[in-house]
Automatic annotation (TrEMBL), chain A:
Record flagged with keyword Signal: yes
SUPFAM superfamilies the record matches: Periplasmic binding protein-like II (SSF53850)
Organism expressing this protein natively: Marinobacterium stanieri
Name of the molecule in the record: Phosphonate transport system substrate-binding protein
Main localization of the protein described in the UniProt heading: periplasm
Taxonomic superkingdom: Bacteria
TrEMBL record, chain B:
Family annotation (SUPFAM superfamilies): PYP-like sensor domain (PAS domain)
Pfam families noted in UniProt: PAS_3 (PF08447)
Gene3D superfamilies noted in UniProt: PAS domain
Keywords linked to the UniProt accession: Receptor
Organism: Marinobacterium stanieri
Taxonomic placement: Bacteria, Pseudomonadati, Pseudomonadota, Gammaproteobacteria, Oceanospirillales
Coiled coil (UniProt feature): none
Domain of life, per lineage: Bacteria
InterPro entries hit by this protein: PAS, PAS-like_dom_sf, PAS_fold_3
Domain PAS: 44-79
Protein name: Aerotaxis receptor
TM annotation in the entry: none
Length: 248, 153
């Protein structure tokens, strides 16, 4: 039976082909068929995760927490220099200059990306804003979040920092970031499920060596990654503990 | 910044729960919480610091070497009522998450307010320590806490 690889729906669409190339690389390393299953929605992916359909997942930190603590998955590696940070932005012409200037009744454009949404809400707390006095417009991508903001359908937008930085210069010039998180220890991870047990050690070695392997280098590049670092069990537990303190 | 800030220094004897005490220089001056950062530390089950992130080091004014191996009460501000910490310890001892507003004392005697969340760290069913993550509190919550804590001291 082929193994199933999947990627958290929040990855930048510009790297879609990179994940297909990675899938091919992976099949060679494992000597087994691997199928890449992509999802538009976090919910749909979570359903399949719970149903035991996925074996290797490039997971956002929030889902990694469920995978490890509830479903017995193991984190193998993390991408180097790719912490998940959140930006709250408003329109460039808005007179607001800091989060504390934002007022109840705020309309927020956001995505279903759990990490970004949670961190966005935490950064609004200093203005006494929470789910009781803010309304949301949930959109499918950061491009749409920017659009909602610029079309005045929303007053503020939550962005994955990497997603914000990938917007066109023109779009970005019409927005003003109010705050950007600097957490650095919360990031995506590559997480392996029970059916991967026999492959885990070899795969971890190969992943870590990818950046030195002439066949691995272009694969990394196509995914927009610098390389993989091993995640020790305690590092994973620490990240999950940290996320636990952020969710209610 | 609080209206009570005078920036004048005073010497205060702080008595800790474990019977030790230290004379601390207190300066009534607030250092604003850095936007977008989380201040993270971990302790062993006794409250001895085992990990501090960069934001923790920057805000507390201590070096990493000074913090690791020290009791977390090194940050205790004399304006904080003992009952707040009793509640913290009682809550985490039951394996639950504690959340509250804390005024912390910096090495230089100034202070900073945080909204803190403390959780027990469980590994293979065993308590191995605690993690605390702090975020920026709102001014209204600081004012409420200041007023409440003044009645509890
Ligand atoms: C993980 C963790 C983090 C803590 N962080 C702080 C802190 O930032 N500031 C503080 O005054 N006490 C903190 N405490 C509580 C201290 O351990 C201590 O109870 C408190 O400073 C009062 O001192 P006392 O209990 O000796 O009277 C923390 C405790 C734990 C378990």
């Amino acid at each position: 039976m082929a193994l199933n690889l999947s990627v958290s729906p929040d990855f930048p669409p510009t790297h879609l082909s990179g994940w297909f190339i990675f899938n091919t690389w992976l099949q060679r390393q494992l000597g087994e068929g691997v199928h890449l299953e992509l999802y538009d929605s976090f919910e749909q992916q979570r359903e399949d995760i719970r149903a035991g359909k996925l074996d290797l997942i490039y997971a956002n930190p929030y889902d990694a927490s469920m995978l490890v603590r509830e479903l017995g998955f193991k984190v193998l590696v993390r991408p180097r220099n790719r912490a998940d940070e959140t930006v709250i932005a408003v329109r460039a012409d808005d007179e607001v200059t800091c989060v504390e200037d934002l007022a109840p009744g705020l309309k927020v454009a956001t995505t279903a990306d759990p990490d970004v949404h949670i961190m966005g809400m935490i950064m609004l707390e200093s203005a006494d804003l929470d789910a009781t006095n803010v309304s949301f417009k949930e959109l499918d991508s950061y491009v749409l979040v920017a659009k909602a903001l610029l079309n005045r359908d929303a007053d503020a937008g939550f962005f994955l920092k990497a997603g914000f930085e990938e917007l066109s210069e023109l779009v970005r010039s019409k927005m003003k970031p109010l705050v950007s998180s600097q957490i650095s220890v919360v990031h995506h991870t590559l997480v392996a499920g029970p059916r991967m047990q026999a492959h885990m050690d070899t795969l971890t070695d190969r992943l870590v060596n990818m950046e030195h392997d002439p066949k691995g280098i272009p694969v990394l590049k196509s995914m927009g990654l610098d390389g993989w670092d091993v995640m020790e069990e305690e590092q994973t537990e620490f990240m999950i503990d940290l996320i636990d303190t952020l969710v209610d | 910044m609080s209206e009570q800030d005078t920036a004048a220094a005073r010497e205060v004897l702080i008595k800790y729960f474990d019977g030790t005490e230290r004379l601390a220089s207190i300066v009534d001056q607030e250092v604003p919480y850095p936007d977008g950062k989380l201040i993270v530390s971990r302790t062993d089950p006794q409250g001895i610091i085992t990990h501090a992130n960069r934001a923790f080091i920057e805000m507390s004014g201590y070096t990493r070497e000074e913090l690791i191996g020290t009791n977390h009460y090194i940050l205790r501000h004399p304006d904080m009522p003992a009952v707040a910490f009793k509640d913290l310890w009682d809550t985490v001892a039951q394996g639950k998450k504690w959340q509250g507003y804390v005024k912390n004392l910096r090495k230089d005697g100034a202070y900073y307010w945080v909204k803190a969340t403390v959780i027990p760290n469980i590994r293979n069913g065993q308590l191995v320590g605690y993690t605390s993550v702090r975020r920026k509190p709102s001014r209204s919550k600081i004012n409420e806490s200041e007023a409440l804590y003044a009645t509890l001291r």
